[in-house]
């Protein structure tokens, strides 16, 4: 190996190790709201084609645990709805599952020192008994703040909270909560 190749190999091996900031641990972390076993609503979050840790373009910072932070925030935002619907017919027959797929997440440090975050997700509500589809919605956000890239967790948190509130509003706003009657199995 020539000296030039050896220097290039050393340079590649040392380049760009990101500073990883957890969204679920440390200062400013999203609270891990554990769902009550008695809750009729199960929240499942998955990242589809979303990098975790999420890199902040234009910096050496990446945010980890996006999916877990999102799930905890949605669980907290929807718990009043779940408590209010604890005795609905579907709740007493197993309840509901809301699958939230984070379809897009992007973070960037703009040249003026502003962190900008954008996220999109799809939420699908199903009755747990029989896995019956009840409805689907799209939620999204775009937030920004004048902070250092390593201090962007409040910006990401605001985005996640906005999406969780939007989802809770969708649940409360008239999505059908009971599966349609199956004429083949009715009395």
Overview of the molecule:
Strands 1, 2, 3, 4, 5, 6 and 7 form a seven-stranded mixed beta sheet that branches. This protein has helices at residues 3-14, 66-84, 89-92, 153-172, and strands at 19-22, 41-47, 54-57, 61-64, 96-109, 115-127, 132-145. With 187 residues, it is α/β, with parallel strands linked by helices. It has a single domain, classed as Lipoprotein like domain (Double Stranded RNA Binding Domain, 2-Layer Sandwich), CATH 3.30.160. Helix 2 (66-84) packs parallel to helix 4 (153-172).
Give the key terms.
single chain, 187 residues, alpha/beta, Double Stranded RNA Binding Domain, seven-stranded mixed sheet, elongated
Share of β-strand residues: 25-35%
- Number of DSSP strand runs: 7
Q: Runs with pLDDT <50, length 5+?
A: 1-14, 183-187
So what's the CATH class?
Alpha Beta
Shape: elongated
Could you give a short account of the major beta sheet?
7 strands, mixed
CATH level 3 topology: Double Stranded RNA Binding Domain
> Please, what is the CATH homologous superfamily?
Lipoprotein like domain
Order of helices and strands: HEEEEHHEEEH
CATH architecture: 2-Layer Sandwich
Distance between the termini: 81 Å
By DSSP (H or I, 4+ residues per run), the number of helices equals 4
Mean pLDDT score: 86
Number of domains: 1
As a whole number of angstroms, the C-alpha radius of gyration is 21 Å
Helix content range: 25-40%
Classify the secondary structure makeup into a structural class.
alpha/beta
